[in-house]
Specification:
alpha/beta; Rossmann fold; 2 domains; 6-stranded parallel β-sheet; 20 helices
Length: 433
């Protein structure tokens, strides 16, 4: 049995890939983990292959995975890493599978997303509720998976005697042109512009709060954890230069690693609040400006928000903290029980593979259509250019143009280049096994 696990955002997905790989290999499955951009380098095969993908919203997404994976008889299982949605109609429409995306299996974290898919006509046979693998790592049996606070402090020169304040950012709309271009197309330019402006204004006020707090409180460091699609810009220059040792922008490791070892946690719009609940780590939601009700994350509706700097200071200094919303809502969005999600996913996948002779979307003219697709979308050209840049980057060359870096998300290319020498994954694999 052959399986390929595709990841797109390393810090969000790679730990899950390792866990799923280890569990499938226990079932004597031949498993390969592949970065989404690297899929096009796969060799052709007609062997029936399970392909786990991180998302699939429409026919174009489907074609990318199908033709780039180069497996004519691919059985797709969509792990769909964005499932906690706001009630905004345009947001829901964006996440609704369309075209070929409706024909593949969707792994749901809980009944809320399963009901969302059923309500939009997705075949019930393509909807499977298993829970969220990312929460498996917060179960007691995975305690040894995390790096301890002392070792993290040594690696990043973080003082153990100061309070670690973690901010989980969601400001990808503030300054990433790729995100906004895609959102303008899917959600409508005016609708997206409103949220973009709210992101920019909220981020600027929150950065001012951090500046004031660090100036008045020398007993704390702030760890700014940007969204994977967020781009740093000049808005960060002043505070970074003013507090080089106490305002730290760190993107390494999965967000759960930082949740586990931070003393205080806050966010703006991030659904990582669920991980905080699973880890029993109360947090604050910083909202200097109100979120439109239709945009609000479902879990956070009616919750308690920090709306001023004084509230922010009082909350950080409070010795007794609670969660800012009713945590019982988590169990509507996430299936959490005695069986870990990864085991449910593996059990389903093995059964699905066994009963499926071939995929319904088998393309008889696969090789011809693949070549046409790859040429039309210049996929191999883009792939080779990125690989060439990664080679140069590892030898010291770097693109410095801010315009190019923002437009093409060069940070991501560089991050992937450095992963070749990443040794931490071997520690993770050992811990998982």
């Amino acid at each position: 049995m052959k399986a390929i696990i595709v990841y797109e955002v390393y810090n969000r997905e790679y730990d899950n890939c390792l866990l799923l790989k280890a569990a499938l290999e226990r079932q004597e499955c031949n498993v390969q983990i592949v970065y989404k951009m690297d899929l096009v380098s796969q060799t052709y095969s007609e062997e029936k292959t399970l392909i786990f993908i991180p998302n699939c919203y429409n026919s174009e997404d489907f074609k990318y995975y199908y033709y780039c994976a180069n497996r004519a008889n691919a059985l797709f299982i969509n792990l769909q890493y964005e499932q906690v949605l706001s009630g905004d109609k345009l947001n829901l429409d964006y996440h609704m599978p369309k075209g070929k995306a409706t024909e593949i299996i969707n792994i749901c974290w809980g009944k809320a997303f399963a009901n969302f898919l059923r309500g939009r006509g997705i075949d019930v046979n393509n909807i499977v509720v298993c829970g969220a693998m990312q929460l498996d790592f917060l179960r007691k049996e995975f305690e040894s998976f995390w790096i301890n606070k002392k070792d993290i402090a040594e690696k990043y020169q973080l003082p153990l005697n100061l309070r670690w304040v973690l901010f989980i950012s969601s400001f990808s709309f503030a300054n990433n042109p790729l995100v906004n271009k895609a959102s303008d197309s899917e959600l409508g330019k005016n609708n997206n512009l409103d949220f973009r402006n709210l992101s920019i204004e909220s981020r600027n006020v929150i950065l001012k709060w951090f500046d004031r707090y660090l100036e008045s409180n020398t007993d704390a460091v702030i760890i700014y954890r940007k969204h994977p699609m967020e781009v740093y810009d000049k808005s960060f220059s002043s505070i970074s230069e003013k507090y080089p040792d106490r305002f730290l922008k760190i993107s390494d490791y999965n967000i759960k690693q930082w949740i586990m070892i931070s003393d205080s946690i806050c966010n703006w719009y991030s659904t990582s609040g669920v991980e905080c609940v699973a880890a029993n780590k109360p947090f604050d939601i910083l909202r200097p400006y109100p979120m439109p009700p239709e945009k609000e994350v479902t879990l956070y509706r009616g919750g308690h928000f920090i709306e001023s700097y004084d509230e922010f200071v009082r909350s950080l200094q409070s010795k007794q903290k609670d969660f800012p919303f009713d945590v019982t809502r988590v169990y509507n969005d996430y299936k959490i029980d005695e069986i870990p999600a990864y085991r449910k996913i593996v059990d389903f996948s093995m059964a699905y593979y066994g009963r499926s002779e071939s995929a319904s979307y088998w393309d008889k003219d696969f090789l011809f259509n693949r070549k046409k697709y790859v040429v039309k979308h210049k996929i191999k050209i883009k792939y080779n250019l990125k690989k060439f840049y990664q080679l140069l980057y590892r030898r010291g060359f770097k693109i410095n143009s801010k315009k190019i870096r923002r437009k093409y998300f060069v940070d991501d290319w560089e991050f992937q280049a450095l992963l070749i020498d990443d040794r931490d994954k071997y520690r993770k694999i050992k811990s998982i096994i």
